[in-house]
């Protein structure tokens, strides 16, 4: 088989091989673990591997010799209209454990289907009917046509933006309904999406400003950066074991502002919360004060904050009301989200234990866990945010104060 192992083709071959391997591993994981997110990521990595294939094979000499040239011409390696929707649906499946494709979602695959039909027409016309290059009279790969590349870039950028919007909604909901939001934020997904959007934006910019950008050899660095990015998400997606517990449905494409929230059965049993991401309903001040006192009593007397997986629904059940009511009181009465409210009580409990010298009897992490934190990093970050000191600095401050008092 023809393959010129030069620097460019060899580097892209490494990423292509790893992309296919991770795609198969994730497909296996998705089937055996019934993990939809892994299945969607498997498809994304497979398409990403195909995305860099024309340049990997092109740099290795496939465009210059038959029958390799025809393989390059008539195989639709770059599915530009498919990559965007796959990114978006992967994001949904990762953040929403109840995600399923609906009939209206198939509209997003129409451009990809249309382009696939177009490639079949090209193949049938040139190879089976005319037996000569008609569509390929210019001997330029249709996958690399300017119109297709630009339309594909716009499509990918659009769906990446929609994925970021979906993530932003998920993040806001997480802080509104659970007290352990930081442990289920999937920050690596947001970082990947932002990096991908940046690379796509730079490609559009260079395409406009640099006429030579359309030349085959000028695009290596773009495809190298893209390869590094999809390799990063393949490792992160395969190794990351975090699972969301707050699936939701968001009709971003249909101007529907209503979001259906519900948690894992372990936390919520079969109850469903209907709410808005932005609380638009207001309740009277007197009623807010009553509910504030009830929540404060639940936190201070019953120490509800000690539950490391405390949710908005748990509080609503204990107070015999609905989660939306509690959410409104927290937002309008305490002027913060649910996650910050609970963590505030946890930090106060930690400070009280430190003042009583508990850090001399057990580890600082043990104190944090006993007060409801389930992550060392979350505890340290929250403590620093609320006290402007690290836990160790706070302990030193207490000990210095005790020395001054004794003297």
TrEMBL record:
Top-level taxon in the UniProt lineage: Bacteria
Transmembrane intervals: 6-27, 39-59, 71-90, 106-125, 145-164, 185-208, 220-238
Keywords recorded for this protein, A-Z: DNA-binding, Membrane, Transcription, Transcription regulation, Transmembrane, Transmembrane helix
Listed SUPFAM superfamilies: Homeodomain-like
Gene3D superfamilies in the cross-refs: Homeodomain-like
Annotated HTH araC/xylS-type domain residues: 295-397
Family annotation (InterPro entries): Homeodomain-like_sf (IPR009057), HTH_AraC (IPR018060), HTH_AraC-typ_CS (IPR018062)
Protein's recorded name: Helix-turn-helix transcriptional regulator
The species this protein was found in: Arcicella aquatica
């Amino acid at each position: 088989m023809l393959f010129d192992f030069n620097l460019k083709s060899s580097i892209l071959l490494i990423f292509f091989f790893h992309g296919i391997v991770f795609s198969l591993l994730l497909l296996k994981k998705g089937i055996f673990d019934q993990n939809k997110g892994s299945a969607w990521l498997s498809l994304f990595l497979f398409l990403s591997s195909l995305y860099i294939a024309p340049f990997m094979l092109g740099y290795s000499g496939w465009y210059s010799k038959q029958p390799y040239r025809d393989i390059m011409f008539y195989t639709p390696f770059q599915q530009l209209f498919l990559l965007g929707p796959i990114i978006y649906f992967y994001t949904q499946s990762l953040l929403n454990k109840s995600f399923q494709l609906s009939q209206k979602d198939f509209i997003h695959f129409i451009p990809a289907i249309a382009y696939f039909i177009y490639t079949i027409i090209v193949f049938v016309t040139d190879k089976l009917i005319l037996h000569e290059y008609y569509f390929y009279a210019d001997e330029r790969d249709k996958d690399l046509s300017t119109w297709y590349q630009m339309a594909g870039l716009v499509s990918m950028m659009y769906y990446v933006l929609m994925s970021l919007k979906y993530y932003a909604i998920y993040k806001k909901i997480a802080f509104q309904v659970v007290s352990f939001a930081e442990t289920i934020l999937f920050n690596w997904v947001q970082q990947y999406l932002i990096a991908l959007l940046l690379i796509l934006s730079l490609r559009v910019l260079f395409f406009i400003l640099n006429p030579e950008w359309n030349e085959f050899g000028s695009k290596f660095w773009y495809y190298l950066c893209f390869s590094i990015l999809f390799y990063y998400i393949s490792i992160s997606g395969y190794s990351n074991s975090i699972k969301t517990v707050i699936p939701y449905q968001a009709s971003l494409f249909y101007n529907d502002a209503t979001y259906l929230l519900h948690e894992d059965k372990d936390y919520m049993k079969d109850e469903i919360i209907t709410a808005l991401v932005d609380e638009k309903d207001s309740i009277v001040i007197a009623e807010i004060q009553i509910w504030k006192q009830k929540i404060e009593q639940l936190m201070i007397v019953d120490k509800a904050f000690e539950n490391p997986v405390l949710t908005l629904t748990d509080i609503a059940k204990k107070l015999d009301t609905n989660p939306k009511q509690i959410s409104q009181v927290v937002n309008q009465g305490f002027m913060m989200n649910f996650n910050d409210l609970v963590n505030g009580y946890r930090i106060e409990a930690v400070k009280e234990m430190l003042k009583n010298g508990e850090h001399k009897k057990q580890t600082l992490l043990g104190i944090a866990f006993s007060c409801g934190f389930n992550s060392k990093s979350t505890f340290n970050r929250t403590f620093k945010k609320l006290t402007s000191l690290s836990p160790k600095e706070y302990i030193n401050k207490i000990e210095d104060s005790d020395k001054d008092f004794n003297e």
